[in-house]
Amino acid sequence: MDFKKHLENAWRLTLKHLTSLILMTLVMFVVSAATLGILSPVMLAGYCQAIIEMIRDGREPKISDLFSQFHLFLPLLFFSLIVAVAILIGFTLLVLPGIAMVCVVVFGCLYMLPLITDQKMGILEALKKSWEMAIKENLPDHMVVVILIIGLTAMGSSVFIGTLFTQPFTTVFVLSIYLERTGHVINNIVQPPPAP
What we know:
Elements: H1 3-16, H2 18-34, H3 40-57, H4 73-93, H5 95-109, H6 112-119, H7 123-135, H8 139-157, H9 160-181, E1 185-186, E2 189-190
Antiparallel strand pairs: 1-2
Helix pairs in contact: 1-9, 2-3, 2-9, 3-6, 3-9, 4-5, 6-7, 8-9
């Protein structure tokens, strides 16, 4: 996998659509906080789909895109509650199991939301496919992606203003990789899906 290409692509697209992405990110954070996280999963789904369409089709992301996936509200909320309880139990028992659970979720669920919104998969089907993409289709590359995401997120989250930039950049980076791995068009070049 050409990480340099994906990082450059993410940088270029983030700068090109910077105002839209920052506004969309800010609204997502404010609404998520105002609803105590209840709307976070479904808004993140809309956020991801808007960025997929930005990368693939050149479409300008809009704040209204955040509310475009509300038909997934209950399934995503239920899944998020299960994950949150598992992580909470891990942190309650000892800190390390909680950290391990967070790492497993990031590692295995990285492509789950785009598979749900873009390919219209059910949650279990998308979870299974995301896990397969993580462990079967080039594990070392996937581990590098996860490490980069955790690093970028950690750098951005140290300051709220930083998060407004690193969140869209990181999401564009991940979704650029997702589109390549699923054989979609990126920069007008059809990327073949990996061999089974």
